Every structure is written in C-alpha cells, then in structure tokens.
C-alpha cells in the first residue's frame, strides 16, 4: 500500500523569516528620500553680493518690455558695439549648465539680421549656494566655462551675442531664489526692473571690479 505523501514541514520546523533585510531596505529608501526632500524645504540663504555681469566701470542699460516676464533683465551697452562684450559671473558659484537652450538661429556679427533661433541660445547657469542662482542667455558662442566648474565673481563666462530667440545682440539675465525669479540686486541695491507691464529701463555702472573681489 502506497504511503500518503505530504509537502508539509514537520511541526516546529518553520521557514526562517527574512524581515530584517526588508526593514533595513525601507529605512534606507526613506533616509535617501529625506536627504533629497529636506534640503528643498530649507529657506533660502542670504542674498549673495551680486554685481553687474559686465566689465568694471562700464555703464549699461537694463530694460524690459511687455511679455518679457517679470524680473527678466536685458542688458545693452550705452556706448560701443554690444557684439562680443565680455559676460562675467555676478558672484562666486558653481556652473550647473553651460550649453544650448533651444536652438541657435543664425544671427551673427556678420549677419545681424539672420534667422532667429528658439529659447536662450548659448547660455550659462550658476548655482551660488543657499538656493540662489543666476542665468546668462543669448551668448555669441559656446560658453568659456563648463558644467561643474567653480567660478569667482568677475570670471568671464562668454561673450554677448544674439543666439536663440533674440532680436539684437544683448545679454538676457536672471536672478533666482529657489524656484522663483526675483528682482535683480546689484551691489546690494535693487535694480528697479520688476514688472513687464510696460517698456522701461534704468542705467547702472558696473562695480564688478578686480579690487572688489574677495
């Protein structure tokens, strides 16, 4: 007579539980998530000592116009040609982006009325710490810095151009706190460029000078 077969384990011989590794994995995932989320909740740090992103002693016109977006600043020199003028870091920081935003188009010093591109063209973005950031758009050529590079205030990032969606050579500039654009300050003073409800401009002289650098 055949004996009945069973797959049951003998009493008192249970499969060992493996909950500990699973619990440790959950804790590790939660810790990693907290490491990402918690810093995002911290308030921004103090405003860096931003200076104009142009050469020491030069006077530039800062302007905006309807549809430009609040707090966006366009820089035009008050004398001389805009093409190729140095674009400088406003404050110490680390380059996070250095490349192409959108498409370049075909506007150059040799063909200033060439086809427009899209977006910001050649551009640079700098993280200044404490959730502060600056952006520099429409550069003439590939930036002279690269992502991950540490820069000091006054270091050259590129040259003024008209790449991207640009009608004339100029520097489009932004200061950001966290995820929000804010009014740009230079040398501790608000620029006066705020709403884009109308076209207006101010004139400022750069104090982004070697003697003033830390």
UniProtKB/TrEMBL annotation:
Pfam families assigned: Peptidase_M23
**Where does the UniProt annotation place the signal sequence?**
none
Species, as recorded: Micromonospora marina
Q: Which residues form the M23ase beta-sheet core domain?
A: 84-182
Gene Ontology MF, one: metalloendopeptidase activity
Q: TM spans, by residue?
A: 23-42
Is Oxidoreductase a UniProt keyword of this protein?
no
CDD domains recorded? M23_peptidase
What keywords is this UniProt entry annotated with? Answer: Membrane, Signal, Transmembrane, Transmembrane helix
What is the name of this protein? Peptidase family M23
What is this organism's lineage? Bacteria, Bacillati, Actinomycetota, Actinomycetes, Micromonosporales
Tell me which domain of life the UniProt entry assigns to the organism this sequence originates from: Bacteria
Record has Transcription as a keyword: no
